[in-house]
Amino acid sequence: MAKLKQKMYDNCYFVCLVTIFLIGMLIYLSESTSNVPVMDYWRYLNALVDKFFTKGISFSDLYSNNGIHRTPVQLFLFLLNIVLFHWNTQISIYLGAVILCITACVLYKIMKPTFTNKGIGYYLCIFIMVLTVFTLGSYEILLLEFSTSFALRNLTFITGYYWTNIFLENNQKWDSRACYLSMYYIFVICAMGGAYSMGFAASVLFVLFFDFCKKMRKKEGVCYRNYVVLSLGVIFGVSLYLYGVTDLSTGNIGGSFDILQLLYFFFHGTLIVLGSSLVGNGLSVEMLTFFGIMVLMIHFICIYLYVSNRIYEITYIPIFMYIYLAIFIVMILMGRNTNGVEYLSASRYICDSSMGIISDVIILSFYLSKSKIVFVKRKIMSYFLIGILCLGTFYADITELKISKYRKIYYDNLIEMMLNLDDYTDDELTPFQAQMPEQVRNGVMLMKKYRLGIFYNIDMER
């Protein structure tokens, strides 16, 4: 206990900062959410609940694919919520905020060793990192039951990067930890990340290859067996994930198209994704494009600082995240090329695209830690970049806070519709965002039958 108190005292700034953000997030969630299912959870309800209570659920049910996505952990958490809390969606929403707190702790552990003195750069970098982790811009995830599974996905990705980075620091000899890390890759790819695991896998493979080539070039001692075991873990995980997936459709890429128009869409779409990662999706397409250009320039500057200052000799974390961001954007653009660029600003993508901003902050923290050799002008430039990232994220948060009360009204209206479902036509059920209105009607019947969600409390009162 004394050791824990000492650690909290030594890191009191971070502890206080995370505590404030977590409390603020929980207050925001309590004022913006209601116990109501939305989007894919209507499909999960129809596909699994009746079978769960009658015949039982098999692993194949959890590992079934929806297009290119497999989300067994997400489905397991859904069923666990039903068993423990009679499907209270707000439990998952609040738990997601707690997982964000853990994610911030992992990132803090990555950044903290870089600072030998706690100057203004230390406080600014830690602040913007926590601010980015808790960004309200990704409200589509934060305010829905997806919160826990998406937060867990990013946490396992970042933790995997952290452990891989530690392992590669000293792997001249065979290390049995390679087997455990390899199994971790398989678990994350197959169970945690859905199709986004492809970005995780690609980033890990790239860093393994880069580290191997770097050490061979320097004629450092390397253990081939370590790299083989880790690489095979990633490859096996991807192969296992894709086994049985037959629907790999991605928009209309396979049809006829104008190559110049497609290239323009990819470039413009990239700017939209990057712009929304900073300021949210409350602005026009033109403004998001402008901020996308700004974010892209910041990424390039930080990558230049990373390479020119040989920060890759210290950590590979930014490489992991930048590659993941690039793969993520390509996947989104390929999958949504028929929806228009406006769709690419969807807030659900910000929890992934913000990894680029976190990478920028990590690089700037390493750069500013060289207090004795960084020129004053370069320090000012670094603080200026941090200021842009901070103000942009603040803008996204303030914009969301202004309209958060209306989201509560929206979800409460959905509950009212569920209680009087027969009074509404199929077209009026669109706000539930289910694939078909029948999913909502049948889903409400199942909730009443098994006393789930809002109907659990109603039945108890009777």
Structure description:
This protein is mainly α and 462 residues long. Helix content is 72%, strand content 1%. The chain has 20 helices and two strands. It has helices at residues 2-10, 12-32, 40-54, 59-62, 72-85, 89-111, 120-133, 139-142, 146-169, 177-192, 197-217, 224-242, 259-279, 285-308, 317-335, 350-353, 355-368, 376-419, 437-449, 454-461, and strands at 65-66, 69-70. It has a two-stranded antiparallel sheet with strand order 1-2. α17 runs antiparallel to α18. The chain is globular, with a radius of gyration of 23 Å.
Instruction: Kindly state the percentage of residues in helix.
Output: over 70%
Instruction: Note the run of SSEs as H and E.
Output: HHHHEEHHHHHHHHHHHHHHHH
Structural class: mainly alpha
Largest sheet: 2 strands, antiparallel
Overall mean pLDDT score? 86
What is the number of E strands? 2
- DSSP summary: helix tally: 20
Structural Rg: 23 Å
Report how far apart the termini are. Answer: 47 Å
Strand content: under 5%
Global shape: globular
Low-confidence stretches: 250-256
Please state how the strands of the largest beta sheet are arranged side by side: 1-2
